[in-house]
Amino acid sequence: MEGMESKNSSKSNEKVEKEKSKTLEAAKDTTEEKESGEKKQKSEIIESIKKRLKGLIKKENQEDQKSQEREESLTVKRLKGFLSFLGVLFYLGASKVLDLGYKLYRNIFESIVKAKE
């Protein structure tokens, strides 16, 4: 009888051990699933943050480019204005020089004519 009881108890111990191992495996599987789910969520969050950052960087670059274009157009306008101003000064200067040259030439010519008379 004791032999039967020991066989039964060893069988029941084996069953208990099998049940424990199954339970442990199931627990491992569920924890792995939870961990993989958490990893997926974390990776999705990271990806969404990366996308947002890329969008913000792109937006900032566009704004920088626009401001740079504005500055360049202002610089071009200023240069054009300055060149126009220089052109006016040159024209006024040239006309003054021409006027002075003409007056000088006329005076010289008149003095030559008077000297011949």
Task: Catalogue the unreliable spans.
Answer: none
Largest sheet: none
- Along the chain, the helix and strand elements come as H
Termini Cα gap: 169 Å
Whole-number mean pLDDT: 81
- Output the radius of gyration: 49 Å
Indicate the topology.
Blueprint: H1 2-116
Brief descriptors of the model:
single chain, 117 residues, mainly alpha, 98% helix, 0% strand, rod-shaped
What features would you describe in this structure?
- The chain has 117 residues and is an all-alpha fold.
- The N and C termini lie far apart (169 Å).
- It contains one helix and no strands.
- It is rod-shaped, with a radius of gyration of 49 Å.
In short:
The chain has one helix at residues 2-116. It is an all-alpha fold.
